[in-house]
Design goal:
This protein is 35% helix and 12% strand. The protein is an alpha/beta fold. A hairpin with a 2-residue loop joins strand 2 and strand 3. Bound molecules: beta-D-mannopyranose. This is Glycoside hydrolase family 26 protein.
Length: 387
């Protein structure tokens, strides 16, 4: 057991003393969902899971081929966190990136059975105009109660609830981390800053949670809040800044952040050194807020498009986290999807970043599928505390 783990076991014990800190916001959450949250606390105090968007659905040069995964074909093991998106509308057969919802359900089940975790985001269409999430036409007021598109929004939520109900095995509903209305402090989605008021955003988040939980009786979700780092000033009152649009402690289990700007993107305002410093600060910030609130922190989206820096995984992600591991507790790091040779965030076979990705995988701080035991069972999330 290393130093980090001893310290963290102690803090985990202290955390355990205030049991409420580990209770999901849904007081009727299923036992497995409760266990998942407790385990996420524990995992985040020890290391972090690696996640990948759409991992089983497609990769560079292949699509919907049973058993395939670019992560498995490069690191040797599936990711520990599987990201999915239920946009654009649930009355379609496939999602916005052409994944059939029926297949998504199968892969979610497979991820669950492997002892890994599923998280869902939702690029819902703009229901006011009938176009996509990036249409900034104000729409939040229209879809809230009393608005002209409210019934249509409720229809989408009903379909979502139905889909969530279908995410089950014979005996149990599969716990899912739901991450709606992400990057809301940016202005690029219709639910973003400038396209609705803060009060409207909060009402949207709260309505979504309340409706699923109280009206549809969905009790196998943990809820994640995930502003974007690029619109978050770290120099002045960062905490208050982070909490723009925060719907309240009763609505959020996971204190997330999406951060693409501090992880090697070329052409931005900051030098690589400043980027690294900001990356560390952003993770310290979510850790601090999560600790204060008794929640779990996570890097809910990140990545360098094309992984153009061959040692990106160790140099940009792992080493800064490792060097600050007393002040950074994040349960997972999720990189975005592998669409093609230019738009991909995980390596694929033959890519120059593969050797470094393997080093990243071998590090005791990172968890892939092979390191997971059963995150839905109390105290049994990881295969062993020492890898
Ligand atoms: C973006 C891009 C798009 C995709 C969207 C939703 O970051 O990857 O191609 O449609 O996410 O997954």
């Amino acid at each position: 057991m290393n130093y980090k783990k001893r310290i963290s076991n102690l803090s985990f014990l202290l955390l355990g003393l205030s049991l409420s800190a580990q209770t999901p916001i849904d007081q009727k959450a299923t036992k497995k969902t409760q266990n998942l949250l407790t385990n996420l606390h524990e995992i985040s105090s020890q290391g972090f899971m690696f996640g990948h968007q759409d991992d089983q659905a497609y990769g560079v040069g292949w699509k919907a081929e049973e058993g395939r995964s670019d992560v498995k074909e490069t690191a040797g093991s599936f990711p520990a966190v599987h990201g999915w998106d239920v946009g654009s509308r649930l009355d379609r057969e496939s999602n916005l990136d052409d994944i059939r919802f029926s297949n998504m359900k199968t892969w979610i089940k497979k991820a669950y059975k492997m002892g890994t975790i599923n998280t869902l985001s939702w690029h819902l269409d703009n229901l006011t105009t009938g176009t996509n999430s990036w249409d900034k036409t104000p729409s939040v007021a229209d879809i809230l109660p009393g608005g002209s598109k409210h019934a249509e929004f409720v229809e989408q939520l009903d379909l979502l609830a139905e889909m969530l109900e279908g995410m089950r095995t014979t005996f149990t509903r599969i716990p899912i981390v739901f991450r709606p209305w992400h990057e809301h402090n940016g202005d690029w989605f219709w639910w973003g800053k400038g396209n609705c008021t803060e009060a409207e955003y909060i009402a949207l988040f709260q309505f979504t949670v309340d409706y699923l939980k109280n009206e549809k009786n969905i009790h196998h979700l943990l809820y994640a809040f995930s502003p974007d780092r690029s619109r978050l000033r770290l120099d002045t009152i960062p905490e208050q800044n982070y909490l723009y649009g925060y719907p309240g402690d009763e609505y959020v289990d996971i204190i997330g952040i999406d951060n693409y700007g501090d992880v090697g993107r070329i052409g931005g305002p900051n030098t690589p050194e400043q980027q690294q410093e900001n990356f560390i600060q952003s993770l310290k910030l979510i850790t601090k807020i999560a600790r204060e609130k008794g929640k779990v922190a996570a890097l809910t989206e990140t990545g360098l498009e094309g992984v153009t820096k061959p040692d990106w995984f160790t140099e940009i992600i792992l080493n800064p986290i490792k060097a600050n591991d007393q002040e950074i507790d994040i349960a997972w790091v999720l990189v975005w999807r592998n669409a093609n040779t230019t738009h991909h965030y995980a390596p694929y076979a033959g890519h120059p970043s593969v050797p470094d990705f393997q080093k990243f995988d071998e590090d005791p701080l990172t968890y892939f599928e092979k390191d997971m035991n059963n995150p839905y069972k109390q105290g049994k999330a990881l295969k062993s505390s020492d890898k």
